[in-house]
Design a protein that fits this description.
18 helices, monosaccharide binding, Rossmann fold, single chain, 5-stranded parallel β-sheet, G6P_Isomerase_C, alpha/beta, 3 domains
Amino acid sequence: MTWPVEPERQTLSQLFASDPQRVDRLTLEAAGIYFDWSKTHLTGDLVNQFVQLAEARGLPAARDALFGGKTVNTSEGRAAEHTAERGEGAPESVARARALHNRMRALIDAIEAGALGDVRHVLHIGIGGSALGPDLLIDALGRDAGRYDVAVVSNVDGTALEEATRRFDPNATLLVIASKTFTTSETMLNAASALAWMAEAGVEDPYGRVVALTASPDKAMEWGVDETRILPFAESVGGRYSLWSSIGFPVALALGWDAFESLLEGAAEMDRHFRFAETARNAPLLAAFADLYYTQLRGCETRAVFAYDERLRLLPSYLQQLEMESNGKRVAPSGEAIAWPTAPITWGGVGTDAQHAVFQLLHQGTRLVPVEFVAAVEAGDHQDEAHHQALLTNCFAQGAALMAGKASDDPQRAYPGDRPSSTILLDSVDPASLGALIAFYEHRTFANAVLLGINPFDQFGVELGKQIAKSIEQEGTEGFDPSTRALIARAFA
């Protein structure tokens, strides 16, 4: 494959000087979010080349297949129908998702009416996509909801479970188990320990306070969950794309059903933008073009995301799974080796903390790192407005400083500049905007995958370590390398 070619590389300052309309050309608004790629090295010529590449790589057809419920996860022979959960997809899949949402809402109504007794705490146990999405949304939007105290536990380290349960009354706790297969070892171990905690505290019927979120309802029933408290979702909804399905149950419970519906509609608005906006003015596609410019033309191995909003502090962690589990591949669906870099390493943090931790490397280090800033115009606090003004001022100043740099006679105080950044500015952090933002990142990941020639919907690389761990548990250390045997002997002596 031939990637776009720069006829002559210019600095960011030169690009602004040569094009007075650059901001207009490389900014757009979609689903209530303002996107700015003007401080990247994209040019009109490069965008046109990427548009042609997208056509050549069959992106329009791949997008139609995604929304049409066709088999886009070729290695596992199934569709990827997370968009149907928010009303954009094959009609029969949309209808099925709506029916499952209605089932979820009925259970929430019953819980709120007291059908499961006193419920003040919700212990949500999952891992990966079954935990990261709910955790992000509840942390971002649930701080003032005042409905239920929700804890999300994913780590099999018992300290995580103890920390969550320490503040909970077991007699007023609802246990939510989220697992697509209902066999995920870490999740099921945590769930069994949580049930034991409830039983030891004298809860009369711990299983009667369990809700299961799964694509394998039969396994949940075998485990002991009553069918009326099993909320299924489609097998065609992948884990890291599943927060729109019944995996979002704790979100809807914590925030209220109206908020959950707003989340879905915000995502659906971004779906429609991705489907119908022209390629050169399409937010997920422009973001993918910038991503590919830096990985393929500039050799960048990482991408940094900084949320200048405390409510979005979990966004970088969420994106790490979405982007690296989806596109961290080395072969095409055909099994052929990929001859170019695939996903960069996603990392990041929260502004302004990160400015005093990692920005030294971004400004004066030897590696070029594309930076993405995410912020909101409306504050999320009731403090003096000077707090939010300082937050946004720092955000915008960092982008300006990365681009402009600063000359100095003292090399240690010189900033080379010409460091790229993009900015995503929400009007406010509310359910609709956050739904649109997450959907934007999903479609950006998909667009990158299509242009890279990989399948973003499987994750076989996750399995090897799990298989080896199970082998150690069942068969001991025979056949393992000397280092692993020594570590096991030392830890389990």
